[in-house]
Write a structure and sequence with these properties.
274 residues, alpha/beta, seven-stranded mixed β-sheet, 7 strands, Rossmann fold, single chain, 2 domains
């Protein structure tokens, strides 16, 4: 039987979203940091795993650059689109909670950009991190995307005028934290939540960025910009996306993490602890 999530993605055009101007901001930013943390060796010798690959926006782009890319996608419809785009991507149906087809320490870099949006418990989020950690090489890097609490409150709650309804039906608690259930399809987090997942999975942060900054709030403005102004906006965002006051304020945050080592590194998570 098809899940509600599969029904949603059978209708939702993720390809169109990522090619929109606000989607381009997210894609360009994410690709910048993917390239930053890829090992500096022959592309064909670098193994990338894209978990929750969708229709292959990242998988296909990286495969076309010559990287050895494996994709895992839950939704069969998305997987079909991905496979038609590029047959060099090794694509499988599966989910982030069970990567049993892959051996330990197999991949240099893991992209986990979709699954955390749709996992509703800390237990499942940590399990997804632990599975990614298991198949990650010791010196590898994981990029994890989250959808953020304040974006949901400001846009769905206030801008779309559902705030009183959400407070009354328990979808928001007294601290304006989103309290979703599986039928809502998306989960939303705050920075301290992300810190707690990393701690439970014994992962350490390298850095954390705002993948899209203010772009989701200003979609109509972006769409009316001339090309030169839009490119200036991209430059502005890439210049500011690591700033602590902006991380967590946009709709998507990307946490860049690695296996915790003895002695550790200077961990930026304390900067956001409440």
């Amino acid at each position: 039987m098809m899940t509600e999530l599969e029904k949603y993605y059978n209708k939702f055009n993720e390809e169109k979203r990522l090619k929109s101007r606000h989607g381009q901001v997210e894609f360009i930013t994410s690709m910048k940091y993917i390239h930053k943390y890829l090992p500096k060796r022959e592309h064909g010798q670098v193994k990338i795993l894209d978990v929750g690959a969708g229709t292959g926006r990242y998988s296909v782009a990286l495969a076309e650059e010559g990287y050895d890319v494996t994709a895992v996608e839950l939704v069969k419809y998305n997987l079909g689109i991905l496979k038609k785009k590029n047959n060099s991507v090794k694509a499988y149906q599966g989910n982030a909670l069970k990567l049993s087809r892959f051996p330990d320490k197999e991949f240099d870099l893991i992209i986990l950009f979709g699954p955390m949006y749709h996992l509703y418990t800390k237990e499942d989020k940590v399990k997804a991190l632990m599975e990614a950690k298991r198949v990650l090489k010791d010196e590898g890097t994981i990029l994890v995307a989250y959808t953020m609490n304040e974006y949901s409150v400001l846009v769905y709650g206030f801008r779309e005028n559902h705030i009183q309804e959400c407070l009354e039906n328990g979808k928001l608690d007294a601290n304006y934290r989103v309290c979703p259930s599986p039928e809502d399809l998306y989960d939303y987090v705050r920075l301290e939540d992300i810190d707690s997942y990393n701690e439970a999975a014994e992962m350490e942060r390298i850095q954390i960025i705002s993948a899209d900054g203010p772009s989701d709030y200003m979609r109509q403005v972006l769409n009316t910009m001339d090309e030169k102004t839009f490119q200036t906006f991209i430059d502005y965002h890439l210049t500011t996306c690591e700033r602590p006051e902006l991380v967590g304020a946009g709709s998507h945050t990307v946490d860049i993490i690695r296996k915790k080592k003895d002695g550790g590194i200077e961990n930026e998570s304390s900067r956001y602890a409440l």
